[in-house]
Amino acid sequence: MANPVDAASNPGQAAPRPPAMPTRRNTELLLLAFAALLVTIANVLVEANQEQELTSQLLYNGVAFLALFGIAHLAVRKWAPYADPLILPFAALLNGIGLIMIHRIDLARIAAAPERNALVNRQIGWMVVSIVLFVLVLAFVRDHRMMARFGYTCGFVGLFALALPGFLPYSISGAGGAKIWIRIGGAGIQPGEFAKILLLIFFASFLVSKRDLFTVAGRRFLGMEFPRMRDMAPMLLAWAASVGVLVFERDLGTSLLFFGLVLVMIYIATERASWVVIGLSLFAAGCVIAYPLFNHLRVRVLNFLDPLGRLDASDGDSYQLVQSLFGLGTGGIFGTGLGGGRPTLIPAAETDFIISAIGEEIGFVGVAAVLLLYLLLVMRGLRTALAVRDSFGKLMASGLAFIIGLQVFIVVGGATRLIPSTGITAPFLSYGGSSLLANYILIALLLLISDAARRPPPPSKPKPKQAPIAEAHTEMVARPT
Amino acid sequence: MNTPIRRVALTVMLMIVALLANLTYIQVIWSDELRAHPRNSRTLTEELARQRGDIIVGNEAVATVVETGDNVYPYQRTYPDGPVYAPITGYYSPAGRTGLERAEDPVLNGSDDRLFVRRLSDLITGRDARGGMVELTINRRMQETAYQMMTDQGLTGSVVAIEPDTGRILTMVSTPTFDPNDLATLDSEARSEAITRLEEDEGRPLHNRAISETQPPGSTFKLLVTAAALENGYTADSAVNPASSIQLPGTNTMLPNFNNNDCGNGRNATLLQAVEESCNVPFGELADELGPEVLQEKAEALGFSDPDLEIPMTVASSELGPMSDRPATFQTGIGQRDVRVTPLQNAMMVATIANEGTRMQPHVVSTIRSPELDELDQTRPDEVEDAMSPQVAQSLTEMMIAAEAHAGGEGQIPGVTIASKTGTAQWGVDPNATNPHAWYVAFAPAEDPQVAVAVLVEAGGNVGQGATGGRVAAPIGRAVIGAGLGGG
């Protein structure tokens, strides 16, 4: 069987018997070491600029980083040896940059109030748990296709997790107006972070099994074929769930994220632009209906339209957004230098607005680098989707990759006033256990799919003379003549 | 399914590009505005964390910083002789800045281009950036003398002294004054209390009377009219109207001399005597004869009507007023009606006479220095205009020597010939019931002028209705001249 993904690395292999496929695991190790080096240098800069002595924290952060990703790397070597070598290093570097920023914000916060706990140690704790989960997913899932069998289970659990905080009292589920937590005692998780992956699995399996239904032609209108009304149930359900999240949990970000994900997955499954049109129309309708009804939504929009004019607005001021803009503006092109800015002036700088803290200290150049890292991560994910052979894998991989991109767009766009701001975390960067756990599970799944995509076939299987046209996926598909 | 996946990839790319474009707008184009926004405490905190440069007078700082030991605000601005130099330094506080603290802010905070190389080396060596030093032209002894003279008697007013041949400002005092330390404090409560107190003070201590406020110049203005007359055919010996008063044309208003005195011997008088005795009638008539255009032209040659004058603080523009009819021109001739001058403008006028008619650009900053006191820039004497011929200036000087002999008051300096002119300016809604402003403009030594000075004591000083320029203002001017000449 041909290996389209790495065909270029084996030119001239006319092969009844394919050679050992390069696993590129050493590339991954090298990149991980490079990420660790960058993170350590950045850490030294932070400490130097904060006029701290180089503390043991530095060593702790560096060693923890290397050890954790060493373990993750070994797990990938063992259970997903052919996985894309870039995905894990990208996630690691983003995680490392986040760690630096959280440590940096810690230093400023502790300087102002010495009794505060260092968040960075808790974040490292979450990283440990995340990597453990990452390894477990790799070890137990092994083949992503088995997940299709649990589609409905995932769907129910996901929907339940998504909806649960909305039904809990505010004292358990609320924070900053939104009801997205489940907190018992000191610990808390945001079930929405996990729900997005569970629902993604459900949608992938559901769409694959019912794909034909959605492609049945309905009416033609404006040059596009629209689906029949009765086939639109999943879309309407997603819409209703999103509106529900918006209304009952006041979580604009998750609502947007969830709806965008469903829209894109339906589009990929059906290959029909009409679904996008329908989805966006529904979204627009939802906005128009919700805007006058919900004050928290209106305040976000007003603050987005005129942040500087609403610094003292009584119905919910734009302080946070303006501080974010001030931070970004003060940072300018090259930033104030790591440890040289005042990111603690932005409320929630370590979670939703961490990108602004990064923008203040390493400037436009730094934020651009971080955004490009995200873009590369998403592109590797989508490339996996292109390369994998089964429809379920394709849908899963593209969903997993797209959700990272969409989440980045929502959170960064919100913090930089491209769109109204919403409470949502930046994948890998932000402080927060649920987000980190969910995103490492996401990466583990993506690695499994890419392993499947790049794994050479078992040698026993006789090779067909010519690869079916449907498998020549990385090249332009030539029309059969 | 690959085509939609590719389109999704393109969509994600576009989303990231949109984020980058938006960030470019914020961090590159909008950034200056965001950085300078009054609510952006980052910029201010950053500035407060930097070591601001000193303002130096005679090798000693009049504005410097002390280390607080605090992390966020490691330095605090402090003014060793606060009230004495407050009209020049202004104040620097987290809430705002005035005076030189504002005018030379880029140098003091280190952002000025002249400090660029220095900043670069700081960046490389990792030293904390420091601001540059501003060295002033002020003469410490003169400044302190003027300050003492004004405050000892609790006078409201201003003293300005200029070095005639360079335009260097040697003295700039404005009283009542304030202590900039009260406003530079990092204790925001104490600061806002001080601000409120100073802003509500009826003596308006935050106003720099030397440059920010204009007042009627009274008889000191006669020097300007005389200069115009000398250039239009008059000499010191030309005959002028000796009458004790005249009726202003077309009105019932009388223009009397001071105390209704005759001029000269009452039958005939010369221009010299008119200046010496400060007769009003001849100057009313001279102004009428010369006409508004000539007066305006002469005034502009001497620095009037220049709204862009900076020393580098902005100076209020001195104006003649409209002179819309002949009575107005008569009254303008004696420095009343709508004539308004700053003490600095009056000092510039006598400095120009002392400098043989060449007007020099006044300035208070002598040298810009690096934090290590290396010279980065020096203000060179700048000739602005030949306001009058040397002959006219010489003639005026002789008249002023005579006027000084006639002026009376205390404080004459033995062995030094002073050329001066006093003024007693009426003002207010009911001029006869309001205590007059007392003026004294002078330079010395008359034969080789080193110092030109203008003194304004507002509202009668401590003498009240009987105040005259000679009695109230002249002793202060002479003391400042004495301090200047004695100090070499």
Description:
Chain B: Residues 157-481 form the Penicillin-binding protein transpeptidase domain. Chain B: Keywords: Cell cycle, Cell division, Glycosyltransferase, Transferase. Chain B: It comes from Actinoalloteichus fjordicus. The complex is a heterodimer of chains A (481) and B (488). Chain A is 63% helix and 3% strand. Chain A is mainly α and 481 residues long. A two-stranded antiparallel sheet of chain A has the order 1-2. In chain A, α9 (233-248) packs parallel to α11 and α10 runs antiparallel to α15 (391-415). The two termini of chain A are 23 Å apart. Mean pLDDT of chain A is 84; it is low at 1-15. Chain B has 488 residues and is α+β, with helices and mostly antiparallel strands. In chain B, a hairpin with a 6-residue loop joins β10 (245-247) and β11 (254-256). The model of chain B has no long low-confidence stretch (mean pLDDT 86). At the A-B interface, α10, α13, α14 and α15 of A face α1, α2 and α3 of B.
Strand content bin of chain A: under 5%
Total of DSSP H or I helical runs spanning 4+ residues of chain B: 17
Radius of gyration of chain A: 23 Å
Low-confidence stretches of chain B: none
Structural class of chain A: mainly alpha
Sheet-strand content of chain B, in percent, reads 15-25%
As an assembly, this protein is heterodimer
Subcellular location (chain A): Membrane
Region (Disordered) (chain A): 1-20, 456-481
Keywords (chain A): Cell cycle, Cell division, Cell shape, Membrane, Transmembrane, Transmembrane helix
Membrane topology (chain A): Multi-pass membrane protein
Structure at a glance:
With 481 residues, chain A is mainly α. Chain A has helices at residues 25-49, 56-79, 87-112, 119-141, 151-167, 170-173, 191-209, 211-215, 233-248, 252-270, 273-293, 295-305, 319-331, 354-387, 391-415, 433-454; strands spanning 174-175, 178-179, 182-184, 187-189, 220-221, 224-225. In chain B, helix 8 (140-152) runs antiparallel to helix 17 (469-487) and helix 12 packs across helix 16.
